[in-house]
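note to self — DONT lose this again. spent like an hour looking for the file last time. sequence + predicted structure for the chain T wanted, 343 res
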Amino acid sequence: MTPVELSRTVLHAVRRAVDEGELAVAVLPERVVVAPPGPGGCGDYATNVALQLARPAGQPAPAVAELLRTRLLRTDGISDVVVTGPGFLNISLAGGADARLVRDILRAGPRYGHSDTLAGQTITLHAAPDVRALVLMDAVARVLRSQGAAPRLNSSRPPEDAWVRVLGVPEDIRVRPGTDPLRPVPAPADPTPLGRDAARWALLHPAPHDRPRIGDEHLVQRESNPLFRVRYAHARSRAVVGNAADLGFGSEPGPVDASALHQALADHPRVLAATAAHRAPDRLARHLVAVADALAPLLPSVLPLGDEKPSAAHRARLALAEAAGTVLAGGLTLLGIDAPEHL
């Protein structure tokens, strides 16, 4: 149910209450404004229509709100209605939790899942002086910053120029003696010929205790390549948003039958926190693969087919696809990998 449809639903409830003698209002509002709830509110949308009607109806606003609440609860697509404050109606839609998740992601953008949990903490990282350890340390530092921490990066030797220039390893790593707690299994070959994105993925996707593979399999544009699946899913999510705009409609969070994707998106903040806590970027990389794989079945149904007109279902699927693309872009950025809009 879109805000426009919900507005009409609330207005219909008002008219029915007047027709059946429960409300005595000479002039009905032409439209009902619904909007995300403000401070102290709850649910998906809120409206002040009961406050508007209270004076002309000669009833207290909470009484008008309760009357309308009873009617709205009998409406398909509405799961709950709560009266708050002086008489605001707070409406939760069926599938509202999923819609709120999507709305939260779109509101936060690529920073969805970021937090201030580690704010004020300076965390010292010390990596072995090899390419995989330094790339891993850089990715861990990025995720730590997303949780509010201020990481300090140390190694016993400065990074090689190619690692800085090609792979994006920070050049300001402090040279300090240490015990090298970040010491993953080294790469079996020089990863720089793969280029920044494929090389970083090759080094970060396996768990630190697993031996990474350094080969052209990370460059192929096929489903067998997890990096390709992640970046392709992001590019397709951006494409459907653009195509929907060309068709004249936009996204609106709503109920969508895609539980695996909703669960993967809801898990994103937890995954970022675990990645920071365990110094394990492979957790984030595998999570992005899970999001991409859960998004793939949704994409063919996002846009209308043929002469089909855009519906609330299309807008809800579009919002979910946009949210998934947002999570993929944010996660790739934290790994130091580009999220292109076209592949």
